[in-house]
Design brief:
Layout: H1 2-12, E1 20-24, H2 28-37, E2 41-45, H3 47-57, H4 62-73, H5 77-90, H6 95-107, H7 114-120, H8 131-143, H9 152-166, H10 170-173, H11 183-191, H12 220-228
Parallel strand pairs: 1-2
Helix pairs in contact: 3-6, 5-6
Length: about 230
């Protein structure tokens, strides 16, 4: 949260914002961190996690799922807990799970439908979306395919590339960042060669591209270099 606060201030000057929305899955460190580092923030409980918790707790009772969902939408936390309390008494075999849902709602009640409440006050805010979906599309789909394995540094480096693409910062990143794969430096070695220096015959000298004999033979950019210099 400390690093997030610094980054937020650097990029968006969040300390000057009238309102900051912070989404979380109910973890205490997120709520506490929001209070400590973003004093002007409002906490929104992730709708995906709340819905999943509800379905996991009451898979046998879809009607009650709908009732609880409607009560929460209306902000009726007390009524929600009472209904769940009755169900706990009627279904002792599900007591542990129902109590888990009750605790989840009680300790996150300030974040239930926080965005909807802001809209009712006339504040034009957007939904925060589901973090799980972003993780799945940006990271999991790229990193968890069959047979893949990563070092920590390799995973972080590739995640950085994905971050830049998703945030539409890929083009602006290149002029100010070091070349991540060393391609630029290798090409500079070739481009800067003076074939006529010291000899009238350019074939008196041997030139090479180190990347062509390295461990990246199957990489698209290596194949492009091979085609560029007419290597079959």
């Amino acid at each position: 949260m400390s690093n997030l606060a610094i980054l937020g201030e650097k990029r968006f000057q969040l300390s000057q914002a009238e309102l900051v929305l912070i989404g979380g899955d109910g973890a205490s460190w997120i709520k506490e961190g929001a209070k400590n580092y973003f004093p002007n923030s409002i906490y929104q409980l992730c709708k995906f996690h709340l819905e999943r918790k509800l379905k996991q707790t009451l898979p046998y009772h879809r009607k009650m799922q709908k009732e609880i969902r409607n009560l929460l939408k209306e902000g009726e936390i007390d009524k929600t807990l009472k209904e769940l309390g009755r169900e706990r008494s009627l279904k002792p075999e599900h007591k542990k799970n129902i109590e888990g849902l009750m605790h989840y709602i009680y300790y996150n009640q300030e974040g239930v439908n926080a965005v909807d409440r802001l809209r009712e006050q006339g504040i034009p805010v957007e939904d925060l979306g589901a973090v799980e979906g972003n993780i799945d599309k940006t990271l999991a789909n790229r990193f968890k395919k069959r047979g893949m394995r990563w070092s920590i540094q390799g995973a972080l480096s590739l995640a950085k590339v994905g971050q830049m693409i998703v945030n539409n910062e890929w083009d602006s990143w290149w002029p100010i960042k070091a070349d991540p794969i060393g391609l630029k430096s290798e090409l500079e070695k070739v481009v800067s060669l003076d074939f006529n220096k010291g000899s009238n015959d350019k074939y008196d000298h041997t030139y090479f591209l180190p990347v062509l004999s390295g461990p990246h033979q199957d990489r698209p950019w290596v194949k492009s270099l091979k085609r560029l210099v007419s290597i079959n």
